[in-house]
Amino acid sequence: MPVILEAMPATYNEALQIGDWLVDPRDDSLTRGAERVKIEPRTMRLLMRLAQSPGTVISQDELLESVWSGVVVGTASVYQSMSQLRKVLGDGDDPPRYIETVARKGYRLIARVSVPSATATITRPAPAPAQAPVVDSPAKAVPHQLGWVAIAAAAAVAVMAAVWRFSPQLDAIPDVASIVVLPFVDLTSGQSEQIFCDGLTEETSNWLAQVPTLHVVARTSAFSYRNRNADVRAIGRELNTSHVLEGSLRRSGDQMRITVQLIDTRTGFHLWSDSYDVEPGDVLKVQEQIARSVVGSLELRMTADIENRFAGRRSQDAEAQRLFLIAKSHEARLEGPSNEQAIALYRQALEKDPQFTLAKIWLAQAISNRRFFSNRTIESLAPEFEPLLAEAAASAAQVVDLYVVRGRIRVQQRRREEAIADLRHALELSPNSRAAASALGYYHLTNGEPRDALTYYTIASGLDPRAFDLHAQRCTALTQLAQFEAAAAACERARSLEPESPIPYSVSSDLEAAQGNLAAALKWNAAALKHGDDIAAIYNMRAAWLLSLGLLPDAADVYQRARLANPQGAIQNAGLMAIGSAAAIDRGGEKALAEFIEQTGVADSQDWSLLFEIANAALMVRDTDLANRYVQRALGSPMLRPEDLGSPFQVAYGRSYLLISAAALRARGDQEGAGKRLDELSALIDRLVANGLQTYGLYEVKAQLAAMRGQPDAAIAELRRAVQLGWGDVWLAEHQPYFETLRERDDYQALLAAARARNAATAASIRTRLVAPITAAN
Known about the structure:
By secondary structure, this protein is α+β, with helices and mostly antiparallel strands. The protein is built from 34 helices and 14 strands.
């Protein structure tokens, strides 16, 4: 009889029997009968750490400390490695058989752990070349994502340049099975079927993405090759993919011929091709036949789980499927009119097949998109999309699209725990889910967790290497981690992929500003305005930097130009409201501020962010009664949620509504209330520091907090660090009340003088450029 282990010493390095698997940490192998796989050394350490204490809950912090010792990563690393370990073990059941997640506490190994009997032998074949993945049994290949997800998680501080899977500019082509489905070509006269072709392309790719052992390149990168006539070997190098699927469609009356061919990008050889003469109503069958043929040609295994996922994508009505494909193509355009057309088509599909799960899910997504295209609140749209999501969850819980769409909507609803649970589950079900990975990146970035954001954006960009927005978001995360060289490379990649979008130039300007290079920041900002001269946020960035330089009239001019370019967007932008009020104060003090409030109509607004900015302006002119009135109105706004006050993203850029609230409360004598707000801010700052945030805005808020708490030496130390990183908001420091206790200190005045001198030099260098139109690149 084997001996059941209650616990193991931390240095245990012998083979163990864990459930059905013989686990040998000496060569990182797992053996079950004739199957033998090798895993990453860190993944093996994770499994052995769990095996040290079978049945005991081990926290994420403890796992980070023991498995990732000496490596700066976040909790996403634990999640991703745990997800891949479960896949290797075959632990997809509910309830699990190997590793159990204990909500908000950690993980525990629930499988039987024992020492193999003395008669057991372990056969070790000759080692394979170091570059090649070792898989002894084709019946159960190691999910190829294991290596790159684990590496990506560990590379959350930008060591990803050495990992081919996340380096689309490298020439190496992976040895694992990977594929990109290029846009199907419409050969119909007049190309009247192009929209249908696009939907067919995307959904064929989505069917293949259900196979977890196949790496599928996402839509943006695939569609970037439309009409490019690129050599497949070049495509393989650019996308790090081993195979390309090409297709074409020709319609004649009711008849349709679909032709596809699978090509090896390493050799350019055609591995398989076929043509389908499609009768009306057979398109769905063709999609599935293509997917199955590709899987067979690549010698991948069709499991029961994949069969269930395929079943969840089917419609019982051919016309419903056709309408769905066209709707998906319209929705992908991300435009208001196209989104409305998609909604109508999804509804038509559901009229044909009321049980069509995918149509319900993506109709819910399109309805939620009205938040952006129709200026609707997510709360007002919920009665339309929530029943659709509930019906989909009840009928097809195995469909990954459900968790992607619902997770993204929950992020918008600020239901964070539900959002992250859905999105992580989506990525666990399908490591090919670019949408889930990028949504998790957005979640972590806005939650002040740049390390984890970088992890997920890196995963997403590995799946969709030619998606410029993912590289732009990676630039932002790296900037917040003060990894400026890597951030510059990510920004450059974003600009090269999409030179006509304002976004890459905008994040490039933010990168320069984070280092105190405001002249360069203004240059990139001008390029952003050239490509997006009606975007209020870009004007806001420009005006804020001019304010930092002490150029208040120029900042006021930018504010006015923003109002002319986009009146509605400008009046709703809290940052521009702050700039406009500061410019008014500089021009005429309290009287000019009152005129500004009247002219903007903010007095009648229920937007709590705008009300807080006016309260902050009132504090600058020492009108404490007005400040408290606006703070109370902001706190009473029906649009405000408790977590909004502690916005991590705001603190990263040197602003906090908790601080404004505390200052207003203290001004009216409520020391206890002010203290509670400062305690909340202190806890938030501690969390952001622990998450790796490194921006001068963070240190500015830390300095303001210390000064408000009567800790002048600590405040000076934090402000000095902010200045070293590039801080220069001297005008605001002199007018806001947060540094009041430091004003008589020589070291405080010396810091302001140093920042003022740097600002003056920068202002002088750009002065001649400011007379040129700001929409022209400098």
